[in-house]
Amino acid sequence: MSIDPEPPEEAAGHVTAALEESGRLPDKQSFEELNTQVRQLPVDQRLLDAVVAISADMDPRTVLQHIVEAAADLISARYGALGVLGDSGDIVDLITVGVDDEKLRAASGLPQGHGLLRGLIAECEPLRVDEIAADPRSVGFPPDHPVMTTLLGVPLTVRDTLYGTLYVADKHDGTPFSEEDQALLTALASAASVSIENARLYERLRRTAENFQRRLLPTLPDLSPLSVEGAYQPASDLPRLGGDWYDALLLPDGATCVVIGDVTGHDVEAAPLMGQIRNMLRALAYDHGGPPGLIVSRLDHALTMFDDPPTATLVCGRIEEGRDGYTFRWSNAGHLPPLLIGADGDTEYLAPTQHGIPVGIDPSIPRFTHEHPLPPGSTLLLFTDGLVERRNQDIDTGLTALAAHAARLATAPPPQLCADLVTGHDQAFDDDVALLALRIPNSMSPAA
Predict the structure, then answer these.
(1) Is pLDDT of 213 > 70?
(2) How far apart are CA 121 and CA 307, in angstroms?
(3) The CATH number of the domain where 320 resides is what?
């Protein structure tokens, strides 16, 4: 089925609209360069589809793969590749279509940038070759590399710097590449440079946000004879700051204070507020003491000093050692219940009827303190809702799955338990995850 070309002015407008709809807006100069090239072409729907396809993701590696696939599809080529250049000008990464990446690397390694590719890199101009074997610049193909007949390549520049080369080989119909093919691939490369830059900026922002978030989390102390481990896993698809946190500290009376919490919101304010609430709660627990319900109530009143009090769900608890063993005393402010994992694999959510509401809403409401024994060898797991919430799944299903997963890890050391819980999932987390695991010793301390 053929598609009639659109008038250049309409096509350019559609390219711009497609990029705007995707939410990946390039800078003004890039837009002008792209639109200038598009207006010079008999652009059809295939180019528009290709531009949208390469703008549909923000993961850098996925973007590069989309670019190669779009190029091969747009030009109707059997093979396509994108070679990423390092600082030295050598190809340091290769993304292909039509050829198995791993088999190609195992057989011949990365292209060395000799021959035709060296000319493309050095001249930074489009390259069209009707017969590779007859071209004097060709140095042939490595062993086990598919033999290709025709080649079309264009430079890929990002912010006026050569980022790599985009090239295709051998059209499906066996004809040489045309000037129109070259113009289409050049236009696609212009749009691709915008997508690459946006993906790089997005990845940089994601890493910065994750590093900032991790720096706000505490370094857990030695709580021997308890074993403790905390973990934080950001939502994998968004570079945002969140309000999830965990904490554990040794109190003056010898008890261990544990906290898990989640400040409402995911923006630049949530993370600093989380730090403030965490420090306030630390001070209240360490300096003033008392049962967890009283500590949470004091926090509720302390939050009234804010002009716009933040809200947060949390569990604040004490692990105490007595003559009869360890006991967990805690107060829940609208948070998901802790999970107790027995050494034998039995699991139980500690969910009393007096659940409480998040802090920061009404300081006049009473806060309750609950208690439950912690058997020898058991593990107490505190976690935020990102661990069990999924799109199109009710939270009870997530809680049931977590209990089953944790039961299989009942005897795993806390570091392994936390690592498996945040990595042993078939799908990415929709929200940030914080969790805190504490293992109760198998025997009592001599002093007890």
Answers:
(1) no
(2) 59
(3) 3.60.40.10
